[in-house]
Write a structure and sequence with these properties.
Strand content: under 5%
Structural class: mainly alpha
Distance between the termini: 31 Å
Radius of gyration: 15 Å
Length: 123
């Protein structure tokens, strides 16, 4: 039997994120809108916190979380290019982080568990 979204990805998240998301939802915030907004801003930890509170299909949650990682990868690439121009040198660790985020997005879309060695750092 495959694991649920919550079983797979909740352990990646620090409690502070879920606590804050729960407070906002209890105050009337639209959890889905916030999850999508955080995903669009490349903030997977925040997006995940709201996704864990939602009663929507796991596939939709996975797609939103994967989008958050892809968006963070794009933003990281843009930042690396900006810094490269500013300081006239490359920033391989930023590019490596972006590459890892793209791999995580692919793993998440496939419904697979994130290997512990590839689990993203929790901010």
């Amino acid at each position: 039997m495959s694991q649920t979204f919550e079983e797979q990805y909740a352990p990646m998240l620090k409690e502070v994120f879920i606590t804050r998301a729960r407070q906002q939802v209890q105050q009337g915030a639209d959890g889905l809108a916030l999850a999508r907004d955080y995903a669009e801003h490349g903030k997977p930890d925040f997006a995940l916190a709201f996704l864990l509170l939602l009663d929507i299909p796991d596939d939709e949650k996975r797609e939103t979380l994967a989008h958050a990682y892809e968006r963070r990868a794009r933003l990281s690439d843009e930042k690396a290019q900006q810094l490269d121009k500013q300081f006239h040198r490359s920033f391989p660790l930023i590019k490596l982080g972006a590459q890892n985020d793209r791999k995580l997005a692919s793993v998440i879309r496939g419904g697979q568990n994130i290997p512990p060695a590839k689990a993203p750092p929790v901010n």
